[in-house]
Specification:
The complex is a heterodimer. Chain A is of the alpha/beta class. Chain A is built from 9 helices and 12 strands. Chain B is mainly α. Chain B has a single domain, classed as ABC transporter involved in vitamin B12 uptake, BtuC. Chain B is built from 15 helices and no strands. Chain B starts with 8 loop residues before the first helix and ends with a helix. Classes of the chains: A alpha/beta, B mainly alpha. At the A-B interface, helix 2, strand 6 and helix 3 of A face helix 10 and helix 11 of B. Chain A: It holds the Pfam family ABC_tran.
Amino acid sequence: MSSEAFLGIRDLHVEAGGLPRVHGVSLDVGEGRFHGLLGPNGAGKTTVLRVLYRAARAKSGTITLAGRPMRDWTPRGWAGVTGALVQESGLLSGLSVRDVVEIGLARTGLSEGDTAKRIDEALDLAGLADRQDQDASTLSGGEQQRTHMAQLLARDPALYILDEPTNHLDLHYQLVLLDEVRRRGRTVLATFHDLSMAARYCDTVTVMSRGRSVATGTPADTLTPDLLREVYSVEGQLEGTLFRLEGPVRCDRL
Amino acid sequence: MTSARHTWLWPVSLALLGAAMLAGVFWGTAAIGWADRWAILTGDPAAPRSLSLIVWQWRLPRVLAVALIGAGLSLAGALMQTALRNPLADPYLMGLSSGASAAAVAMIIWAPAWIVAALGVPFAAFLGACAAFSITLGLSVRPGRMLSPLVVILAGVAVSLMFQSLTAFFLYIGDPQATRAALGWLMGTAAGTGWGDLPVPLAATVVVAAGALWRAGDLDMLLLGDERAAALGLRVAPFRLAIFAGAALLTGLSVAVAGIVGFVGLIVPHMARLLIGARHRRLLPLAMLLGAVVLVCVDLLCRTLLAPEELPLGVLLALFAAPPFIFILRRVRDVL
C-alpha cells in the first residue's frame, strides 16, 4: 500500500516540551480513504496531527503527501492541499461567523464570486447561514466548532486533518458534518475518542499508546477485546459500529 | 460585519481629521483672525508675516507630527493586540517606553551639553527603546520553539520594571531643574517639533502601514490562533517577529519625537474595532485615522487650556482615556 499511499508517515519521532511524545509511528492512508487515529489521552495522536498541519516539527522521520516529501513543500503549497480542524481558542471578538470562514479562504486564489458561493454552501451545511453576521466570540463551543468546520468544508482540501471533529458537537451535527466529509471522498486523517464514531466513519484505523502505534487495520479487525483491554483498560467489544462496554472498567491503569 | 454597513465611516473620519488638523493650525496661544487664517493658508503675501511664521514653522509641523504619532501608535497598538492575541496589549508592552525613559532621563540629567547637542534626547530615547525591545525579545526567545505571547508579555513586564527603577533612581539623584525637564519629557509633549522631525517617522509609518495592509489577510489568520494560522500556511514565528519589529520601530520613533504618549495605542484600536470589526484591511486604516484625530485634538487642548502654559499630552490623555478604557474593560470582561 505504501507505494500508492496519498499520505505516508515513516518512523516519525516528535518531541514536545523537551519530552519524547511520538516514537517511531508509521502509517499510510490511501487516496480517498478515511483513516482514524485512536488511543487514550497522552497517546500522541494530536502530536502526530500537529506535525501534519505544521504547528510542530518532527525530530526525525519522513512524511510524504501525493508522493512528495513534506520538506519539499512550501508552507503555502502544503496548506493548499491540506486543511486542519484544530483544538485551539483564538481571539474571535470583532469577527463575524462569516469572517472566520472567509479568513481561511484568503490564500486560495479563488475569485470573489466562487469564494462567496463556497462560504454560503459551507455555512448552510453547518447550520449557520442565518447567524453569519453574529460576532463569533459570542457563539457556544459547539457553534464555534461548526464555524471552523464550515471554514474547512469551504476550503475543501485534498487532505482533511481532523483533531477530535466531534468535540462539542451535538449528535445531529456530528453526523451531518462527518457524513459530508465522507461524501466528498477526500483523504482524511482524524482522531476520535468515540470508538462507535470511529467505526462508523473510518476505513482503517491506527491505535496509538504511549507514543507508539500498537495496531493498524480495519476497525473490526483492530478494535478487539484484547486490544481494548490492553490500551484503554476497559472490557468491551465492537459490534458493527457499536461499542459495547461488557465489564467493569479496570482502575489499575497508570 | 459587511463592509457596506461601514462605508459612512471613511468620509466621516477623514472629515474629522481634516477639521481637527485645521483647528490645530488655527488655534493656539497667538490669536489669529479668520481673514488672516485663510490668507496664511493660501500663501497670500498680504498675510501678517509673524503669524504666517507661527502657522508654517510652528503649528503645521507640530500638527502633522502629532497626527503621524497618533496614527503610528494606534497602528502599533492594533498590531501588538493581534500579535499577542491580547486585547489589553499596547505598544509599550515590550518595555519600550521604560527603556526610552531611562535613556532620555539619563541624557537630560547627566549628559554634558555638547553630547546632548550632538546626539539629542530623541536619539537617546530611540536607542533606549531599541535596547529594551532587544532585551525583551532576548528573554522571550526559546530555541526551536514558537515565541509565546505570554512569555513576551512577562518579559516585557520584567524589562519595564528594571528600566522604571533606573529612571526613578536617575530622577531621585538628579538636580531639581533637570528633573523637572525630565518629568515634562516623560509625560509626553510635542512642543518644539519642527519640519526636520517629520521625514523619518513619516517614512517608517508609511512602510509599516503598507506592509501591514499587504499582509492584512495573514494578520486576520493570527486572530484564529497560532496553530490554525500555521495550518493555513502562515510561518507564524517570523511573521510575529516582523510585527513586533514594525510596532517597536513606530513606538520608538514616536517616543523620540514626543516622549511617552500613553493610551492612544491601547484605546484607539479598540474604538476602531468596535466601529468596523477586527478584519485588518478595514481596522488598520480606521485605527490610524482615529489615532491621528484623537492626538491632534488632545494636543490642541494641551496648548490652549492653560495658555500660555502648556500641559503634557500624558495628563489629558489619561483623563480622556479612563472612561473608554473602563467601557472596554467591561466588554472584554464579558467576553473572557
